[in-house]
Amino acid sequence: MGFGKESLSGDGARYLTEGNDLSSSNRSAALLRFGRLMKQLRTKASMTQQELSTASTVGQSTISDVELGKKRTQRDYVVRLDAALTAHGVLIGAWDAAFGDGGTSAYFREVAEFEQTAVEIREFALGLVPGLLQAEQYVRAVSALARPKADRESIDKIVQARKQRQELLKREHPPAFTALLDEAVLLREFQDPQVMITQLDYLIALSQKPRLRVQVVPLKAEGHAGLGGSFTLMEVPDTGTFAYVESQETGFVLKQPNVVASYDRTFAELRSAALPAPESRAKLTEIRGTLS
Question: 72, 126, 156, 206: which has the fewest C-beta neighbours closer than 10 Å?
């Protein structure tokens, strides 16, 4: 499979469409979501607004306005609020996802926010390595293919946005993450062979992290259930489990119970067809060896 619709509908394109600026309605919704999250974290920490203000040196009126979704505060304030709430980067990650400077398509921002509070993420990749598992060199290569006219600054923003998303995997207690990779993803060829070498090394290292499982769906799994395309299942407190899929130019959050159940069954079938984690790591190592 070449770099056609499938590659552009995966993580490689989540950040590559034009028009990354939030519309006024999307921005209002993002402000409300961020405000609710901050209030939830403050309540969990058993702090009043005044106590949070004292601990973070952020004005109480600012905290109140943010929680009500009236305004977007500065990132350095969010860093102080996150530390005062002992939020372990959750609040920072949500701010970056919602209001970061470019690099993230407007249609994906809500999903990127959900990632920050997810307790479990399950993803099947048919065309490209999932964004949370992409090495920097891989991000740059895919970005350049999707936007051949993009300048270095635009690509840098995409890389930065991807790195910010990936910070959640470095937390003390990250979400449980299972990535099922069609073997074809690992056999993708780039003009620079070093791209896949670096990416495979990165996947091998990640596969040994706790709470992160990488499994390969082998090519010999004939006519497997995931041939319809890549998708993500995410479990988020107070939201439940939803499915996320993308077309070439946009993405869709699907919450209908029967639709989510269908994707859940497909994921279960794919996991049954996938190699167990140790054998998957061996497959990654085997493919990596052919590229040396």
Answer: 156
